[in-house]
């Protein structure tokens, strides 16, 4: 399984600093190295939540890497139904570099922030009644190193990449299961969304190779779950133009010109092809004030004083601008018209010392917590496509659930369905609606061969990522999939 070289978003090796600066850094790393060892603790109360938490929350660190010089932080929440019988899922958040707490607080975890009654100060917490932890045990991991509260104990260990991150995550999982033998018999799923679409199939592959080699502990892997996944750069990005035409964000004429002048290739554009360049530029202007995560919601970037001059596909950049603006001017009073404002609550809460103490974060290891950092300089994005990994996994006995919010431009559902069809797995159940409360919740199509079953689901009205927009529907989808019940 080869890979295509991909540009790095920062230096791969640390740059030699001035002597005094370097010495200071060495002192810091030496201090945290002394504290490095796998640890775990139960968290019963949290600042901003009244009383004892109504679920079991564990936080901790697990040392990974060849020299065990990477400390990966995690949040583990036991199923609120039956922890002994319900499946276990290791969940990866996107990015690269987004904290696992983002998925916990904004997508599928049992806690979220109280946006409705915020009056300033430390945000308060409320229960998410549509948490996936209602039906599964879930490990939310800050991955790779430098994400969330995860840190390195040496300068060199800060460097990571797609393949290294997947290898470290596999080591993390094995060690976590050794430390939690009561979950060795639970069915295991590997899940994630957005950029984790690159990492999840790699981790699944590591697990299968470990099982074949007889490595312990024996992992009860059943399958994997992906939401709005980054999978293949060309397919994902090239599907954006057809998608925005389907949802009437560009005219028939613009789409016709794009197909004619660009030959159906909207990614690798020849700068000398002036007709193609001009047409794509016109289309990008049409999308400039559209929310790329959910086309029907307000574009929060335009709530800031400085309006961008060109379309920025990296949503972390947009978020960074919003967070910087709101942190300097404080949050507006409710109602908050832009969903992006909600993310600032996590920055306020997670960077509070009382919160970090409650979560048992090691002092001095992370200077500033970030949900999804704008810059992730020590990470190299190596893989432009993981379709070959999925094709290999389609020859295994696994189950897979892939879902898309159908109002997401950044990773359009038509691109995701396109690479799924390219796997060559036969359609078992044709495109049809799925329902919740007597209403259409989206559409699904099932693929199956003698070794593999993949269910592809769209979530009607959802964006990037789906549980953030349609929590009730996605919980129903997840529960039915785990139960092997028709979605």
Automatic annotation (TrEMBL):
Keywords carried by this UniProt record: Carboxypeptidase, Glycoprotein, Hydrolase, Protease
Protein family according to the UniProt entry: Belongs to the peptidase S10 family.
Superkingdom of the organism of origin: Eukaryota
PROSITE patterns: CARBOXYPEPT_SER_HIS
Protein name: Serine carboxypeptidase-like 18
A GO term, aspect molecular function: serine-type carboxypeptidase activity
InterPro entries per UniProt: AB_hydrolase_fold (IPR029058), Peptidase_S10 (IPR001563), Ser_caboxypep_his_AS (IPR033124)
A Gene Ontology BP annotation from the UniProt entry: secondary metabolic process
Record has Thylakoid as a keyword: no
Transmembrane segments: none
Record has S-adenosyl-L-methionine as a keyword: no
């Amino acid at each position: 399984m080869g890979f295509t070289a991909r540009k790095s978003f920062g230096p791969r090796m640390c740059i030699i600093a001035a002597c005094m600066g370097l010495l200071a850094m060495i002192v810091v790393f030496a201090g945290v190295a002394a504290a490095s060892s796998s640890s775990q603790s139960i968290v019963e109360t949290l600042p901003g939540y009244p009383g004892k938490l109504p679920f079991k929350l564990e936080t901790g660190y697990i040392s990974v890497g060849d020299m065990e010089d990477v400390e990966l932080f995690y949040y583990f929440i036991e199923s609120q139904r039956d922890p002994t019988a319900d499946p276990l899922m290791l969940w990866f958040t996107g990015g690269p570099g987004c904290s696992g707490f983002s998925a916990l607080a904004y997508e599928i975890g049992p806690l979220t922030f109280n946006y409705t009654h915020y009056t300033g100060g430390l945000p308060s917490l409320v229960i998410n009644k549509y948490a996936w932890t209602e039906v599964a045990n879930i490990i939310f991991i800050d991955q790779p190193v430098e994400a969330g509260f995860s840190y390195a104990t040496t300068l060199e260990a800060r460097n990571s990449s797609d393949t290294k991150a997947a290898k470290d995550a596999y080591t993390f999982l094995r060690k976590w299961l050794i430390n939690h033998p009561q979950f060795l018999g639970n069915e295991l799923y590997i899940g994630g969304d957005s950029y984790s679409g690159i990492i999840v199939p790699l981790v699944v592959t590591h697990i299968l190779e470990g099982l074949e080699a007889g490595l312990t502990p024996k992992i009860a892997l059943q399958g994997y779950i992906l939401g709005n996944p980054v999978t293949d750069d060309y397919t994902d990005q090239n599907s954006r133009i057809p998608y925005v035409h389907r949802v009437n964000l560009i005219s028939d004429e613009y789409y016709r010109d794009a197909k004619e002048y660009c030959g159906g290739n909207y990614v690798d554009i020849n700068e000398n092809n002036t007709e193609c360049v001009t047409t794509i530029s016109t289309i990008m202007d049409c999308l400039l004030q559209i929310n790329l995560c959910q086309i029907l919601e307000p574009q929060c970037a335009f709530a800031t004083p400085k309006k961008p001059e060109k379309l920025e596909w990296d949503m972390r950049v947009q978020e960074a601008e919003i967070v910087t603006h709101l942190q300097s001017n404080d949050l507006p009073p409710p109602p908050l018209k832009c969903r992006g404002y909600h993310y600032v609550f996590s920055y306020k809460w997670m960077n509070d010392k009382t919160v970090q103490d409650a979560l048992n974060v090691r002092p001095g290891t992370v200077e500033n917590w970030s949900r999804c950092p704008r810059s992730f300089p020590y990470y190299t994005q190596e893989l432009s496509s993981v379709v070959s990994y999925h094709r290999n996994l389609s020859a295994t006995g696994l189950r897979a659930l892939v879902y898309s919010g159908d109002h997401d431009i950044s990773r359009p559902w038509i691109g995701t369905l396109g690479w799924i069809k390219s796997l060559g797995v036969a359609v078992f159940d044709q495109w049809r609606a799925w329902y919740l409360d007597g209403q259409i919740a989206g559409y699904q199509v099932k693929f199956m061969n003698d070794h593999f079953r993949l269910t592809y689901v769209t979530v009607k009205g959802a964006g990037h990522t789906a549980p953030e927009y349609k929590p009730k529907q996605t919980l129903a989808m997840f529960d039915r999939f785990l139960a092997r019940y028709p979605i």
